[in-house]
Every structure is written in structure tokens, then in C-alpha cells.
Write a structure and sequence with these properties.
- It holds the Pfam family VWA_2.
- Keywords: Membrane, Transmembrane, Transmembrane helix.
- It is built from eight helices and 16 strands.
- 38% of the residues are buried.
- The chain has two domains: 22-214, 3-Layer(aba) Sandwich (Rossmann fold); 220-366, Jelly Rolls, CATH 2.60.120.380.
- The strands form three sheets. It has a six-stranded mixed sheet, sandwiched between helices. It has a five-stranded mixed sheet with strand order 7-8-16-10-13, with no helix packed on it. Strands 9, 11, 12, 14 and 15 form a five-stranded antiparallel sheet that branches.
- Helix content is 28%, strand content 28%.
């Protein structure tokens, strides 16, 4: 079996971003935004003020777009109202005066087609080699499904569009919270409940600024296989995949003599699963022998379950599988099979497709020697020393006891 060069690492040393960070703010302008329950002001006025402050503070290199939903159709025709979403500022270098003027004219109007707005916002941002970010601000759950916004988020994530959706909730409603949590979790984003104008402004600024950190090259998309023989060959890097419930996905990594494999995997729980679950990461030889494993179990109280392992090529026994010459260095390399397994079970009614988001990190570094253990000789010396100390302590204790007893009798 010849060793081929795997996909390029997602984050190469010294690699500079090739695109500016791109963000689209998606604002709910449906009728419920008239409510005056944030600092005694209407939700829409608080959102408009926050947008203005964010636009003024926008980093020069960040490209921003603004999309609205429920902003133009005031009627009762649901079919028409559920198509009501428009991009009022195109993604690109921001004309601050134009952007603030566009936001100032908004008035709460119609329905809440969140799912359609998310799908449209993804199209606004386009595709490329770096991540895009959507910041969704809404006070209510989608009133137009289908498409269901949570399913849209999973669909976008499964397409490998490198899209992160952060959600901000303006109303203390449990249904809204669950829906926004689901949208964020499906894309690796965050959910925040904003209860004041300052909270809303500060959080939007933080998310827009974070786009500067997340627009670098994202994990390379890779597809694991049901067996090691035809699994993708990976070099050092960060990779993303999707794994079905209770599935095993295989990958291969070449490890040269004197090198150590370090790998970790994280599985995001982007939908309801039963409370008890686990993720298992194993390193397996090509002949099926397990080399090492890492496992982590969850109780349903976390959104991500992770596991990791380390294995050195020097640990391979002499009668193990014969190493394979590397096409790039000529040195012999051992092919290690990495297998990611999960013990998840969906709760009733939970969608099982697409699979759960998986992020796999692979690194191959110089082996670090294991700490030396005491040899047999050192062990005997330690044993004799402990025996002598124990004997002396016993004698001293006995002498003190006898002296105390004799003194007590004299009294």
C-alpha cells in the first residue's frame, strides 16, 4: 500500500487569510418587535440603536451586510408574508451613513420567516475558503415553517458552507430560546438572551469583532469510511466530518519512526439526545490490533463531547504490520487507523440526518520519551531505607512509651 499525501492542513503555518471577514446581521422586524419591554423602549428602537453603534465601531477590514425579515408586508396572507425577507445593505465595505439610514426606516410589520431569512443570508455571504458569520436578532420563533430554521441551520452546516450562526433573543420565551439554541448549536455558534440595550449592543459588537478571529481557513472537510482499508489519508491538520448515531468512521494517518501521533475528536450535540452517551477515539493497527484508546462520556449536560489519545511509533512491536515507505520522505511509516465511534441515541422525534458535527484534530510530532521508572536495584535500596526508618521509629516510640509509663508510676 503506497502512502499518498493527505489533504492540506486546515491551518498551515504562516498562512495569511485570503479574504476579509464577512458578517451579515439578520434583524427580525415582525409585528412583535413593537413591544416596549426593554428598558421601557420598543424592541425595534433598541435594535436600531445597537445597529448604529455597531456600524460606527465596525473594524475597517470587516465586510458587513444587513438583512431583515417581516419588514414590508402588513397583510394577513401568510403565504405572501412568509416570503418577506430582504437584504437592505449588501455584504461589502460599509458605507456607514447609508447603512444607518437603511436601518432607521424600519418599522415592525409582518410575519417571522426565520428559516427563509437564514437560507437567504447564507446566499448573501457566498462561499469561499474562510468562515462567514450570521448574527440573528429576533424576539420570536419562526411563524412560517417550513422551512424549519433549525433544519435550515443543519442543512447549511452539512453543505460545508463554513457558516457560523450566532443568535440573540430579545424575549424571555422558552420556545424561542430552544429554537435559537438549536440554530446556534447546528453551526457552532452561540446563543445569548439580551435583556437590555447595553447587553444587545455589547454582544453584537463582540460577535462582529470575533469574525476577525474566525475568518481564517476553517477545518478541511473529509469523509470517513466504514473501514480502514479505504479510509482517507490525513496529515497534520484540523478536519470536519458528520457521523450518524452509533456509527464508526475510519481515517488513516502515517506515523514515522521517532514520531508520536496526537489526535482528538469533538462531537457537537446539535439536537436532543438521550442523557447517557459517549465518544470513543481509537488508534488501531492495519491488522486490527487496538493500539490505544481515548473515551469520554457525557450526562447530557454539555453541548460537546470530546476524546483524545497519544501513540508513539516506537510502541509498535517488532512482529507488527510491516511499515510502508513514504512517497515524500522515503522513510518507513506505520499506517495508523483512527476510528471515531459514538454511543448516542436520539430522543423521540429527533431528526437523525444529517449526522452529528465532528471535528478531528491530527498532529504528528517528535516522540517524547516516557519518564524513566526506578529499576530493580533502586527499588531494593528504597525498600531497605524504608525498613530501617520504620525500625528506628518503632524503637524511639517504644522508649518514649516506657519512660512516660515509669514517670507516671512514680507520681
Amino acid at each position: 500500500m503506497s502512502v499518498m499525501t493527505g489533504p492540506a492542513p486546515a491551518l498551515a503555518d504562516g498562512e495569511a487569510p485570503v479574504e476579509p471577514p464577512k458578517v451579515e446581521l439578520v434583524l427580525d422586524v415582525s409585528g412583535s418587535m413593537r413591544a416596549t419591554d426593554i428598558d421601557g423602549r420598543s424592541r425595534i428602537s433598541v435594535a436600531q440603536q445597537a445597529f448604529n453603534e455597531v456600524v460606527d465601531a465596525l473594524p475597517d477590514e470587516t465586510q458587513l451586510g444587513i438583512r431583515v425579515l417581516g419588514a414590508t408586508y402588513p397583510g394577513e396572507n401568510k403565504e405572501r408574508g412568509c416570503q418577506d425577507t430582504q437584504q437592505i445593505v449588501p455584504v461589502g465595505p460599509v458605507d456607514r451613513v447609508q447603512a444607518k439610514a437603511a436601518v432607521a426606516t424600519l418599522r415592525p410589520t409582518g410575519f417571522t420567516p426565520v428559516g427563509l431569512a437564514l437560507r437567504s443570508a447564507a446566499q448573501d455571504l457566498g462561499t469561499g475558503s474562510t468562515a462567514r458569520r450570521i448574527v440573528l436578532i429576533t424576539d420570536g420563533e419562526d411563524t412560517c415553517a417550513p422551512p424549519d430554521p433549525c433544519e435550515v441551520a443543519r442543512e447549511l452546516a452539512a453543505q460545508g458552507t463554513k457558516l457560523v450562526v450566532d443568535t440573540l433573543g430579545l424575549a424571555p420565551d422558552e420556545k424561542v430560546r430552544r429554537q435559537l439554541l438549536c440554530i446556534a448549536a447546528a453551526t457552532g455558534g452561540t446563543y445569548t438572551a439580551a435583556q437590555s440595550a447595553d447587553e444587545l449592543t455589547g454582544r453584537i459588537k463582540q460577535l462582529v469583532d470575533r469574525a476577525r478571529d474566525t475568518h481564517t481557513a476553517t477545518p478541511a472537510v473529509v469523509a470517513g469510511t466504514p473501514a480502514c482499508a479505504d479510509a482517507p489519508l490525513l496529515g497534520a491538520g484540523v478536519y470536519s466530518d458528520r457521523e450518524k448515531f452509533s456509527e464508526h468512521r475510519w481515517y488513516r494517518v502515517p506515523v514515522h519512526p521517532g514520531q508520536e501521533l496526537r489526535a482528538s475528536v469533538s462531537v457537537a450535540l446539535d439536537r436532543p439526545v438521550n442523557p447517557d452517551h459517549a465518544v470513543l477515539l481509537r488508534a488501531v493497527a492495519t491488522d486490527g490490533r487496538e493500539l490505544v484508546r481515548g473515551v469520554d462520556a457525557g450526562s447530557g449536560r454539555t453541548d460537546v463531547v470530546s476524546a483524545g489519545l497519544r501513540w508513539s511509533a516506537s510502541e509498535e512491536p517488532e512482529d507488527g504490520p510491516s511499515p510502508t515507505p513514504s512517497a515524500t520522505t522515503g522513510a518507513e511509516a506505520t499506517i495508523v487507523c483512527l476510528v471515531v465511534s459514538n454511543a448516542f441515541a436520539p430522543q423521540p422525534g429527533t431528526q437523525t440526518s444529517p449526522g452529528l458535527p465532528v471535528e478531528l484534530t491530527v498532529d504528528v510530532v517528535a516522540s517524547s520519551p516516557a519518564p524513566a521508572a526506578p529499576d530493580l536495584g533502586r527499588g531494593w535500596v528504597l525498600l531497605v531505607l524504608l525498613t530501617v526508618v520504620g525500625l528506628l521509629a518503632g524503637l524511639a516510640s517504644g522508649m518514649l512509651s516506657r519512660w512516660w509509663l515509669a514517670t507516671w508510676r512514680e507520681k
